[in-house]
Amino acid sequence: MRGVKRCKGMLFRLAIAALLAELPAMAGAQNGPSLAPTQADELLLPPDHIIRVKVNGVPMRLLVTAEADGPMHVNPAVAVRLNWKAQIAGTHYVHNINDFLYLLARYRTVDIEGKKQKILVMWSTQPITDVADGVIGIHHLPYNLVTFPLGPPIGDQTVQRLPLKQFGRRFNDTVGTELDADGEKFKVFFGHRLANNLVTAPSANFLASRFGGGFIPGSDSEVAIDYDIKRPVRMMKLARPLKLGDILIDHFSVRYRDWGNTNKVAEIGPDDPPFDPNEIIVWDSKRRGRPDFYTSIGRNQIAHCSQITYDFELREIRLTCGALPK
User: Fold this and answer.
1) How far apart are CA 91 and CA 306, in angstroms?
2) What is the pTM for the complete model shown?
3) Per CATH, which fold does 5-148 belong to?
4) Which of 1, 143, 303, 305 is the most buried (most CB within 10 A)?
5) Burial class of residue 183 (count of CB atoms within 10 Å of its CB; 0-12, 13-18, 19+)
C-alpha cells in the first residue's frame, strides 16, 4: 500500500502520537464551524448512548463512552464499504499476552450537529462494537455538558459531586476522577460497558497490601476489553473498603495475567480474620504495587444511580443516585 507508514509495537504508538501532534494545525486550517464549546452546549444521550453523526459526509451511529481514550474507532466493515486507505498501519501488541491487533488509521472529518473537527479514526480486522458503526470518547464531543442515563430513578435522588480529571494529552484523554487510597491518588473512570469494577495486577497488589485484599475462591472468569479481546480475571474482596463520595467499594475484578502478576494477593480462606467484622486487624505487611490508569468503576457498583453527568465547564462529575443498597 503506497504512502502508508508501517510499523510495529512501540514504533506504531510513536507514529500515532506523531499523527495526533499534527491535529491542531490540521483543525486550524479547516473550514467550518468552530468546536469551541459554549455554556449552552449540552448533550443528553439516549438510553443506548448512541449518537448519529456524519463522517466525511456519510451518516454513522457511534457509541459514546467515557472510558474511551485516544482516536475514534470504527468497525472494519465501515472502512471496507467506504474504501478508506490508511495513513498508518501496524501491529499493536495487547499488553503481555501474545495477542496483537493489526490497526489502521487515518484522519476523517466528523460532523456532530453541524460542528466539524478532524479526528484520527482507527479500525482493525475485528469489530470494536456490535451495537453501532463505531465508538467515540466524550473528549471528542463538542459539548461542555454530557449526561449518560443509566436507568430509571429509584426512590429519592441525591447528587454526588466528584472532581473531573482528564488523564493524558489533548485529543488522547481518558475522562474520570481521582479516588483517595490512603493518601495515594487512584485514577478511575466509569466503565459503562463493564459490569464489575476492574483493576490491573499492580493496582491489585497496591490495594491488597493496604486494605487487606484477597481473591475469592472460585471467582475465575473472563472480561472483554477492546475489540472483544478476552482477558482472565479473578474477583478480589477488600476487608477495608475504598470510598468514592458516599459509595463504598470493596470488590474488584483483577486482570491477573496480562498486566503484571498478583503474587502479593492471597486467596481468602473460610475463616480469614480480616473479613471477620468482630476482629480488629492491624496491617503491618510491606506495602506493594502501585496504582495506574486502568481502574474502572463498573455498572454494578453504581446500579442505584440514574444518571452521570460530565461537566467540563465546572470540572466536575455529578452522579444522580437513589439510596445506597444495603
Assistant:
1) 40
2) 0.80
3) Cathepsin D, subunit A; domain 1 (2.40.70)
4) 305
5) exposed
